[in-house]
Design the sequence.
């Protein structure tokens, strides 16, 4: 069964360093998302991406964050200068095309990247 | 803005029994999706079940079923014949039909299964 994959599974970085989190969405999906989950809290939306541009972003997604689809398979989240409060689990998700004119299919999540900023 | 509330931070149930997890939401939209996701200790988000708001029939997936009350904006998850592998955090989520279709999650309910 197709699945979303994410690398690395864990990343430890120093405050102020840049990190790139990578995701390979399900191959025929067209919509891509990043969410984050600070330990013990709920999952929060960061950004959605379609047709090579951002569809929507949350207030969390400030100028330190960027997303890119550098090729036909990868979808990346970059944090330019990490802060302690960026420590969290980051989930990538993808969903398919319109079905029956009622909207996209369910979002399928990757296993997450656990980011620790020291 | 849409909000999702899960009022039970923790629930426990005896193995083989039935448990119901509660979720309420707020939206001004008439058409939308609702989901339950399971997050085991590995922290991966696994889809359990989904419901389209325009469908009156409650969704079911094997031992999992929902009670969708649109007027009350309530969306509870019933797990029948609970198994040890059901132990996890359960998140209720709301998704718009239109727009970016981001998911809005509740705070989660931690379910413990007692053998």
Sequence:
């Amino acid at each position: 069964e197709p699945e979303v994959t994410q690398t690395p599974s864990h990343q430890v970085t120093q405050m102020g360093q840049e990190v790139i989190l990578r995701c390979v969405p399900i191959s025929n999906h067209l919509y891509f998302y990043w969410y984050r989950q600070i330990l013990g809290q709920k999952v929060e939306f960061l950004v959605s991406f379609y047709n090579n541009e951002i569809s929507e972003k949350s207030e969390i997604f400030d100028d330190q964050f960027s997303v890119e689809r550098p090729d036909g398979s990868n979808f990346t989240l970059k944090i330019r200068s990490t802060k302690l409060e960026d420590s969290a689990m980051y989930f990538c998700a993808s969903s398919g095309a319109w079905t029956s004119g009622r909207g996209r299919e369910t979002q399928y999540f990757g296993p997450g990247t656990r980011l620790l900023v020291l | 803005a849409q909000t999702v509330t899960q009022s039970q931070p923790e629930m426990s149930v005896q193995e083989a029994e039935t448990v119901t997890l509660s979720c309420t939401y707020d939206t001004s939209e008439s058409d939308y999706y609702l989901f339950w996701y399971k997050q085991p200790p590995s922290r991966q988000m696994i889809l359990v079940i989904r419901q389209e708001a325009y469908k009156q029939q409650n969704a079911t997936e094997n031992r999992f079923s929902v009670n969708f009350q649109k007027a009350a904006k309530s969306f509870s998850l019933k797990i029948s014949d609970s198994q040890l592998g059901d132990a996890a955090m359960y998140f209720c989520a709301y998704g718009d039909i239109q727009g970016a279709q981001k998911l809005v999650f509740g705070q989660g309910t931690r379910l413990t299964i007692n053998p």
About this structure: The longest strand of chain A covers residues 88-95. The mean pLDDT of chain A is 90.
